[in-house]
Design brief:
134 residues; mainly alpha; 4 helices
Length: 134
Amino acid sequence: MDLLAPAPISCFLAFLLAVAFLLFQPTGLVQWLQKKNYQYEVTFALYMLTPTEKFIFNSVLFLTLSMFTIAVTLYLPNHLVYAMRRGYYYFAGTEAGNGTLLYAAQEKVAEVVGTAYRAGVQTAAAAQEQLGRP
């Protein structure tokens, strides 16, 4: 088989033309990403920095967000358990044991949320009735 035959070259040229077309006529996703990058650079005034300064700024931002994400992943679950215990204490007035804590807190929170939901539904129904909507 001859590698320089006209058919493979024309296929390769068609592929190159398709890639060039996609690069110069970006899809919706690419346009959206370009717009977000533009908004990011304009919001933080990165467009006026040199490439080295941009790299340093982006590196510091990435490291800060990474450390924040790791901290949230490691410490948020313990904090939520502590907050649930405090929340149960504020609702019930007594501390619950570890086995009954989740169930008791669930009951109290469900009761409060249910009351708030019913009040919201009644308010919405009254507002619709006042506006004359069915």
